[in-house]
Structure formats: structure tokens, C-alpha cells
């Protein structure tokens, strides 16, 4: 309460208009709070319910009554090979695509930033992967990876490579999902880098030119260092959203073959909605969410600092 | 500017053109597939020149499930966008005028919400909706999509709001306007393009969303992304029809995407469009 009063005092003092009641935080909170309360309700209640459920035995596949079983679901998780296998799979599907997206996205942004004559269309078509429904993206890659429908293996055969059976051979299925993820999200990374590059002061490049820097040197010593903060933001967003490949895995491999492409959140989906072990799935999600919060909270603070007050 | 040497310029062109081909080719392949007869679709080597047929589109548009899914997707996406705007615009107005810690904390919280993976909400919403009889209803999905669309719209509107000169609002206050009047008469007209862009992005998100639609709908309110997956399960070999359905689903979002491409980066960093 004391804090609030102090805050209000500071707000009205800093106003250029003395005696204008509308600069008070209280007035504006009236506009914001209904929405924030509604969203709070829609998010916090489900999260609490998830944690609560994870401590019970709720299962839609068994007739036995639901009981409170404490941490039993969590204990079981650490003996569940399928769960344990899904952890490295998840890490692979986060680290590999995001790393390649950052490198490729940087290279493509560099190319676009040169404003080569006749290449303006590239910017336009970059919109397509960004808005394409993920489920359509998954279907599209399913078509391309299916040997009978030609696509990728046909083009490989043109250069004398006999293509693998992408979706039925475990390691190649992992590669297939990664390729689809690269197609889907590299354009987004490139566009963010490009937006940042376009805001860089041209004087720096002019100075580099006067000093006799080659094109490579100016990229290395001007562009790259300036891009560092943007790269951090992109990294945070991409890591957090890397698991949005769920629909792609769903159509492309369904988590298979032999669980090779099953991520933690995919396994949570399977436990909850195929095996109907709702409480068990809730335990997987709770664990996953706790790790995520620990991981992203420190990164978030630095992101919000960029948002200045007007 | 530093000068590029000719080999570098050529390399840049090669990278640019191959990037373009890699992006376009899969989409063209899908469009071609949608125009092929089943026989042509399985021809090896693949046919690049063939007599296009509209039969896949005719069949898919004659399918009552698919037609119902179009209606459901339109109702749910539009409903969610309208409800989200109603909640997000006043919230953003308040937020942009708030000062100090409370503002910082609310912003942090919005950003955090955008980042929570949908899977976290999936199980509780299924259990709760099961109790409340909200499974397989339009309103059920509309409510869930608020979680993603309201923060997205707020986050997209804040920069636009910061661009409105403070003096404009303050002179209205001197003339005796209330904050609500300032919002409606001064800010909203100035924010029109930002609001439309954020509404379109929210529409694209709702239209594309798959996970919640898969779990929270059944026969009655099935949306397009779920309908097409069911389609694949039941008519697995009819790739032409699957291609046609894909093209029909992606056409509107690609058109919308082109229309708001200037806003794409700021909107998407507030959270991906992809569910």
C-alpha cells in the first residue's frame, strides 16, 4: 500500500500538467485490470489444476476411483524409459534446428541486406513459411518425403543419390523433422536479423570503407558485433518456441519410428490423450513447465528492459 | 559503404536465389499435387507437365465435414479476434499510461504468458471443459485462444501507442475529455492500422491452431486443421484431395500475411503464429 501511494505521488509530480487527475495510475489501472484479471483466471487456474492433478491417480482408462497419491507419478516418471528417451530427443529438436536457424538466418539476412538488384521478391515470399498453418507444413513435408509421390528422393536420384526411407528409418526421421523445422522458422530468424541490420548507422560502414575494410571485414567487425543483442533475443524466442513443432511431428512421424521423434511434450500428449492417463500426463507437463520457468525467467527480465516508457 | 568484389556478389546471388527456390518449391509441389488426378500424382518420374484437374477441389468442397469445418474455423477465429480486441485494447490503453514498477511487472507478465507452451494448458482445459460441458463448443475454443491472442495484441499495440504524441491526449484532457473519450476519439482512429494488423495476426493464429482444436472439439465444432488430419487418417491415399484441402486452408492466411508483412516481425517476436 505504501509503495502504491509513493508511486502515485511520483506519477503526478512528474506530470507537466498540475492537477490533472488522469495521470494517476489508479485511473488507468481501471482500464487494464479487468483484462489482466480475466487472463490471470484463464491461465493461473489451469496451471494450478495441472499441478493438483499430477498428485492424483486420475485416469480415464481405469474405472478405479481417483485418489491423492502424492509424488508417485513423479517417481514413476524417472523409471519410465519412454519418458527418459524423450528428454534427449527434445534437446536435439531444440538445439540443432535453433543453431542452424541462427547461422542460416544470419547469412540470408546478410544477402537480403545487400539489396541486390532483382532480389526484392525474396522478402515477399518469406511471409509464406511464417503464416503457413503448421499442420499444412507437416502435410507438405509428408508429401515431399513420401517416395511414391516423388519429391525429395526424386531430386536426389537426379544427382545420383539414392534417398533414404525418410519417415521409417529412425535417424532419418529425426533429420526429416529437423529439415521441416528449418524450412518453417529460418525465414523468421532472417527477417528479424534483417530488420536489425537495416537500423544500423550507415556511418559505421562508411568509416569502415574509408579505412579500407573489405566487405568481409565490415561484416565481421561492424555487422556481427552490432547484431549480438538481436541474436540473444532471437535465441530466447526460438528456444522457447522450438517445441511448437508438435503439429509437424504429429503428421510427419507421429513420434515414431520406435519413438525416435517423440519429444517430452509429445509424450505428455500421448499419455494424456491416447493412453488417457491424465494425471501422469499432468506430472510430465508440470516437470516440463517448472524447468521452462527456471530457464526463461532470468532471460525475460533482460528482454523487458528494452521496453522503454513513453 | 564497403565495396563487394564480384565473386562475393555472385555468391550472394547464388545464396539468395537458392533460398528462394527452397522456400517456393515445396509450396508449388503441393499446389501441383492438388491439381493432379490420382494416377498423375503417383507417376514416377513425377509429372511436371500434366493436364490440371479441378476434381480434387470439387470433391473436397462437396464434403459436408470439410464445409462445416470452414464455417467452424471462420466462427471461432472471428469470435476470438473480436473478444480479444475487446479485452486487449483497453488493457493496452491503461498499460501505456501506467508508470513505474506496476507497468514493468505487467509487461513482464504479458510476455511470460506468450511464452508458456500451449501444452501446459491442454490437460486442465480438457478436464475443466469436460466438467463444464464446454467440449465441442465454439465458445470453448474462443476462450482458450484469448490466452494467446490478448497478450499478442497488447504487445503489438504498445509500440504504436508510444508513437502517439502525448500532447494530443493532454490537450484533450484540458478540454475536459475523460480517459475513455480520449481512448475512443483520439487514440483509436490513430491506431487503426496497428489494430487491424494485430487483429489479422490473431486471426492467423486462431485459424492455424491445431493442438487445442484437436483435443477440445469433436464432430460439431471441428476446425480445418483437425479436419484435414482426419481426412488423412481415413483417406490416406487420396493425396490430391489432401493437397487441395491444404491449398484451401493456407490461401487466406498467405493473403493476410502479405497484407500485414510490415508488422510481421514485431508481431511474431511477441510469440509465434504457429500454435
Largest interface: A-B, 115 and 114 residues
Question: Any idea what the CATH superfamily of the largest domain in chain A is called?
Answer: MetI-like
| CATH architect. name of the largest domain in chain A | Orthogonal Bundle
Task: Please report the total strand number of chain B as a whole number.
Answer: 0
Strand content of chain B: under 5%
Average pLDDT reading of chain B: 88
State the share of residues found in helices of chain A, binned by percent.
over 70%
Shape of chain A: globular
Give helix and strand order of chain A, one letter per element, not per position: HHHHHHHHHHHHHH
**Unreliable stretches of chain B:** 271-275
Shape of chain B: globular
**What structural category arises from helix and sheet content of chain B?**
mainly alpha
Question: How many β strands of chain A by DSSP?
Answer: 0
What name does the CATH topology of the largest domain in chain A carry? MetI-like fold
CATH topology of chain B: MetI-like fold
Say what oligomer this is. Answer: heterodimer
Overall pLDDT score of chain A: 84
- The class by helix and strand makeup of chain A works out as mainly alpha
CATH superfamily of chain B: MetI-like
CATH class of the largest domain in chain A: Mainly Alpha
User: H/E series of chain B, N to C?
Assistant: HHHHHHHHHHHHHH
Amino acid at each position: 500500500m505504501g509503495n502504491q501511494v509513493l508511486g502515485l505521488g511520483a506519477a503526478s509530480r512528474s506530470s507537466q500538467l498540475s492537477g490533472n487527475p488522469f495521470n494517476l495510475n489508479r485511473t488507468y489501472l481501471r482500464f487494464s485490470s479487468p483484462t489482466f484479471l480475466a487472463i490471470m483466471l484463464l491461465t493461473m487456474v489451469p496451471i494450478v489444476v495441472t499441478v493438483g492433478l499430477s498428485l492424483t491417480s486420475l485416469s480415464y482408462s481405469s474405472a478405479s476411483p481417483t485418489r491423492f497419491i502424492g509424488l508417485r507419478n513423479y517417481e514413476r516418471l524417472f523409471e519410465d524409459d519412454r519418458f527418459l528417451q524423450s528428454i534427449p530427443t527434445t534437446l536435439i529438436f531444440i538445439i540443432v534446428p535453433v543453431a542452424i536457424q541462427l547461422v542460416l538466418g544470419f547469412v540470408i539476412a546478410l544477402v537480403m541486406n545487400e539489396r541486390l538488384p532483382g532480389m526484392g521478391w525474396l522478402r515477399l515470399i518469406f511471409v509464406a513459411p511464417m503464416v503457413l498453418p503448421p499442420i499444412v507444413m507437416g502435410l507438405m513435408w509428408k508429401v515431399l518425403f513420401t517416395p511414391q509421390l516423388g519429391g525429395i528422393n526424386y531430386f536426389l536420384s537426379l544427382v545420383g543419390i539414392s534417398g533414404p526411407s525418410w519417415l521409417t528409418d529412425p535417424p532419418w526421421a529425426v533429420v526429416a523433422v529437423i529439415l521441416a523445422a528449418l524450412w518453417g522458422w529460418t525465414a523468421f530468424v532472417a527477417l528479424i536479423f534483417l530488420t536489425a541490420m537495416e537500423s544500423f548507422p550507415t556511418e559505421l560502414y562508411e568509416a569502415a570503407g574509408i579505412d579500407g575494410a573489405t566487405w568481409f571485414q565490415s561484416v565481421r567487425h561492424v555487422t556481427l558485433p552490432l547484431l549480438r543483442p538481436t541474436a540473444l533475443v532471437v535465441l530466447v524466442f526460438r528456444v522457447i518456441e522450438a517445441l511448437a513443432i508438435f503439429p509437424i511431428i504429429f503428421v510427419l512421424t507421429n513420434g515414431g519410428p520406435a519413438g525416435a521423434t517423440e519429444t517430452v511434450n509429445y509424450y505428455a500428449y500421448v499419455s494424456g490423450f491416447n493412453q488417457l492417463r491424465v494425471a501422469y500426463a499432468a506430472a510430465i507437463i508440470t516437470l516440463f513447465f517448472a524447468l521452462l520457468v527456471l530457464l526463461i525467467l532470468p532471460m525475460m527480465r533482460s528482454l523487458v528492459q528494452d521496453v522503454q516508457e513513453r | 559503404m564497403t565495396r563487394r568484389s564480384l565473386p562475393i556478389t555472385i555468391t550472394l546471388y547464388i545464396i539468395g536465389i537458392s533460398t528462394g527456390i527452397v522456400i517456393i518449391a515445396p509450396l508449388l509441389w503441393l499446389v501441383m499435387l492438388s491439381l493432379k488426378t490420382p494416377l498423375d500424382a503417383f507417376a514416377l518420374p513425377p509429372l511436371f507437365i500434366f493436364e490440371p484437374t479441378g476434381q480434387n477441389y470439387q470433391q473436397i468442397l462437396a464434403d459436408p465435414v470439410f464445409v462445416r469445418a470452414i464455417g467452424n474455423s471462420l466462427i471461432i477465429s472471428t469470435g476470438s479476434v473480436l473478444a480479444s480486441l475487446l479485452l486487449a485494447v483497453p488493457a493496452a490503453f491503461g498499460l501505456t499510461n501506467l508508470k513505474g514498477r506496476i507497468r514493468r511487472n505487467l509487461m513482464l507478465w504479458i510476455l511470460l504468458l506468450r511464452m508458456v507452451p500451449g501444452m501446459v494448458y491442454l490437460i486442465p482445459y480438457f478436464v475443466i471443459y469436460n466438467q463444464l460441458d464446454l467440449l465441442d463448443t465454439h465458445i470453448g475454443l474462443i476462450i482458450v485462444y484469448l490466452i494467446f491472442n490478448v497478450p499478442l495484441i497488447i504487445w503489438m499495440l504498445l509500440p504504436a501507442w508510444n508513437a502517439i504524441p502525448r500532447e494530443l491526449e493532454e490537450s484533450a484532457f484540458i478540454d475536459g475529455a475523460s480517459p475513455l473519450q480520449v481512448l475512443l476519439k483520439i487514440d483509436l482512429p490513430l491506431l487503426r492500422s496497428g489494430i487491424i494488423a494485430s487483429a489479422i495476426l490473431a486471426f492467423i493464429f486462431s485459424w492455424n491452431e491445431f493442438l487445442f482444436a484437436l483435443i477440445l472439439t469433436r464432430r460439431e465444432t471441428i476446425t480445418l486443421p483437425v479436419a484435414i488430419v482426419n481426412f488423412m487418417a481415413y483417406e490416406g491415399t487420396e493425396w490430391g484431395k489432401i493437397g487441395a484441402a491444404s491449398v484451401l486452408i493456407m490461401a487466406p492466411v498467405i493473403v493476410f500475411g502479405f497484407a500485414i508483412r510490415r508488422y510481421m516481425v514485431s508481431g511474431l517476436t511477441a510469440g509465434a503464429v504457429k500454435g
